[in-house]
Each structure stands twice: as structure tokens, then as C-alpha cells.
Amino acid sequence: MKNKISFIFICFVLITQTVAFAQERKAQNPLIYADVPDMSMIRVGDVYYMSSTTMHVNPGVPIMKSTDLVNWKLINYAYETLEDDNDRLNLENGKNDYGRGSWASCLRYHNGIYYVSTFSGTTGKTYIYSTKNIEKGPWKKNVLNASYHDHSILFDDDGKIYMVWGAGKLEIIELNSDLSAVKPETKRVLIENASAPAGGNIMLNSEGSQLFKINEKYYLFNICWPRGGMRTVIIHRADNINGPWEGKVGLQDQGVAQGGLIDTPDGKWFSYLFKDAGGVGRIPYLVPVKWEKDWPIVGENGKVPQTLDLPPSKGLIPGIVNSDEFTRKKGDAALSLVWQWNHNPDNSLWSVRVREGYLRLKTGRIDSSFVQARNTLTQRTFGPESSASTSLDISKMKEGDIAGLSLLQKEYGFIAVKIENGAKKIVMIDAAKGLPKEIASIPLNQNKVYFKAACDFKERADNGMFYYSLDGNKWIPIGSTINLPYTLPHFMGYRFGLFNYATKNIGGFVDFDYFHIADTLSKMN
């Protein structure tokens, strides 16, 4: 009997391990455990492309590429700066553009040309970028003098080009052939109340339009949020672009919503959506789709599966985030695509070439706060755990300068060197509730120092810690654990940031030797 029980137990263990291994060999949700919201996705042949939102950081509208729908790599941006002569975008005169900039984009491919469009509440305009080479450009820019909220473009078979936009009441216009202007007298209401399939008590009206034409039928995806409920996928369909449109709830599970449809060369269908995941940001999910009576049925029995019948992820490094030694060969880009500046940069005040193997950040004006300082260089944090470290040469800092490593959001935190009364000190700042407070201060008597920031997003823990080292080997925690809440004023997941700003004198500079990123806290050393 004992031997029989042992045999059964061994079989159970083997089966469990086999199932676990099989699951590990498949893609997992979330698809990307980092802030990649408002996705728009296309397939060209056997290659997939995806655009996303990064709002107030630049360059903007990131373009990613994949051959398997799972492993993505940044390949380009639609623009370097949205506009240059704007106080909000430039962090000038006490103004900023946190939570604004450019919002949800639409990515399309038609007759050999790639199109990426986005809109801005800051400028009140809609921007349409086009190129024949999505990886190398150049991009042509068209500007519409209206901000078409969460719009979606459709190139129809009859040669007409439609744009749908709005919230709750969805409207439609036609664009001319080169997408440079709206055709006169084509604006009309498409759907009077797109939220109706989810009931009458709606907290967030239907928005995030994504319009498709599949097998001669039109499909429109939106998100809405019933009061007391969750983010919900709404799907409408019609035989004619002008209707009548019939709608239904497409998915209500975990708040995974807002996106569209993508197919594979072998005929599989998926819906790309995202979920609000706390401090790490809004993270992408991929959900299987089946077709029944010409309706896309999203999910497995109405649920978002944990695993997908796709290849496993190889991780976000180096495709979405990456370490950097700041060494550049002749012909290399100054910054790799994983980097984005907080707002428009002042390009006269930074360099990776003036000192070989270092990023130099120089001060050029007086700033009163970290969030108003220009030239903070950022990368995404990511989950479930992540950390970043750097080394600073601080020998050329001036009185009042503050330079270091941050976790950037409205309730930010950072570790930095501060020059005060001619003395150097390490400070740790926590801006809980948006109010910065010096939590710890330690005298510093050398010109080289090492900083580290660590994030824990497991099960919405959403906390961060800072560390310093005097030799690059022994890491010492400083201050206290900080909360990393997602706040709407910044509307973005936390970002690692390298920064240097002046509070009293300009002209000082700091040289960052490297930026090292890790996907678990255990790799921090």
C-alpha cells in the first residue's frame, strides 16, 4: 500500500512538473509587464508593428516590431518633439505637460505607406505621420487643426478614408487622399451612445475607438466603464459604415480592455488590450478571439487566459528597456531607442560624446523643483520587480546642484547628491502626495558615488527603495520604502530617471558612467 501511495505521489509530481513546463513554453499574460498603453497594432506580411502612448516624454509615439506577437522591440518613434515652441512641452515659465502631450495613436498600413496618427489636448491639434520605411523613416507630417479624441483611421475598399473619434457620442469624418485635411461637410454622428450595450449607469463613456473592416463588415472596438463595475470592451458591427450599428459587451474581466483585433498568417485571431496595473502603469494583454456568426468572441469562456498558444517571452531586455554603458562608436545614434526625455530636451546641455563612455548632463538654468527641471533622461520601470543602478562623477557640480537617480511620477522619489554650503551630501527624497520631503541625508567626501533604485510591483505592492554605495560593491539602503501609486496628473507608470538640475548657479555638470537595469531585485548586486 505504501509503495502504491509513493508511486501515485511521484506520478502527481511528474504531471505537475510537466504541466508547469508546458505552461512555461507558452506566452503568458500580461504580454508586456510595463507601461505600454493605448496600443494600435497591424500585421504586414508575417511582421507585426505596434504603436503606443508616452504622452509628455520624447521622442514620442513609440513604434515596436515583433515576428511572434509576444517578443517586441522598439524600432522607431513617430516624432522627436511634438512641437518646439510651447512652454508646456518645454517645461518653461513654470508650466508642464504631465499627463498630456500626445495621446492614443492609430497605426495603419496602406498601399506601401505606414501611417501613425495621434492627437494632443495641449496643442488642440491632430498629427498624422507617414513613411515608406517604418524603421528608418523619414516621416512626413500632416497637421489637422482639431484634436480628434481617441480617433481611428480606416482606409476603405472604395478609396474613402474615414476617421472615427469621440467619447460616448462617436463621430466620423472623411479625410482627403493624402490625409492632410478633412473633406468639407463630411462630419456626422456615427453612434449616438456607444456606451449603451453596457447599460445606462456609466462612469467613463465609450472611447478608445479602433475601427476595422473584416470580410466586408465594419467592426468598432471601444472601452467604457460602468459605475461600480470595471473597464469593459464594447464591440459594434455594421454592414455599412453609416449603419445601422448593433453593439454588445465584448469582454468584462479583470478590467482588461481598450484595443482591437489582430490576426496571424495562419488564421488565428487575438484582441490586444491593456489593464490598469498600479504604479508600473497600463500593461498589455493578448486575448484569443473566435468568430461566431460574424461576431468576434473575445476570451476563453469570457475570461482572459493566463497562457497563450504562442511562443514564450524572452523578456523585455533589450527590446523595450536596456542597460547602457554610454559608449558610442562612430555612426551610432547618441541615444538608443529605450531612452526618452521628460518633456522636450535642451540638446545643448547633454552629450554622450564630449567624454567617452559617459552621459554628461549640464545645467543651463535655475529650477525650483525636480519635476520642473529639463533633461531628465528616462526609461520604463517594469514588473514584477526591477532595479536600476548608475555611477556619477560629481566633481564639477556647483553650489545648489542636485543630481541623481529617480523614480519619476507625480509622487516621485529620488536619491541624489546635493551641494549645500560648499559640502556634498547624499539625500533621499520622497514626494508622497506630491510634496517632496528630505527623508535622509548623509555627508559625502568623494567625487564618485553609486546609486540604485528598486521597484516591487508584485500583486500591486507598488513600492520602491533607494541604495547608495561608495565603492560599487557594498550597497547601503537609504531612507525608507516609498509608495509608487499611479496618479492621473502624470498618467504614466513610474520611470527610472537620470537627472541634474541647478537651484543657485548654472554651468555645473555631472557625468553618468553607466545605467544598469535588472529584472529581479536579487540581481541588484
Structure in words:
There is one protein chain. With 525 residues, this protein is mainly beta. It has 2 domains: 11-308, 5 Propeller (Tachylectin-2, Chain A), CATH 2.115.10.20; 340-523, Jelly Rolls, CATH 2.60.120. It contains 2 helices and 37 strands. The strands form 8 sheets. Strands 4-24-27-36-29-30-31-32 form an 8-stranded antiparallel β-sheet, with no helix packed on it. The N and C termini lie far apart (50 Å).
CATH class term of the largest domain: Mainly Beta
- How much helical structure, as a percent, in the residues? under 10%
| Tally of helical segments | 2
Tally of separate domains: 2
N-to-C terminal Cα separation, in Å? 50 Å
CATH architecture of the largest domain: 5 Propeller
Query: Could you tell me the mean pLDDT?
Result: 95
Largest sheet report:
8 strands, antiparallel
List keywords for this structure.
single chain, 525 residues, mainly beta, Tachylectin-2, Chain A, Jelly Rolls, 2 domains, 7-stranded antiparallel beta sheet, 2 helices, 5% helix, globular
Q: Care to give the gist of this entry?
A:
Keywords: Glycosidase, Hydrolase, Signal. With 525 residues, the protein is mostly beta strands.
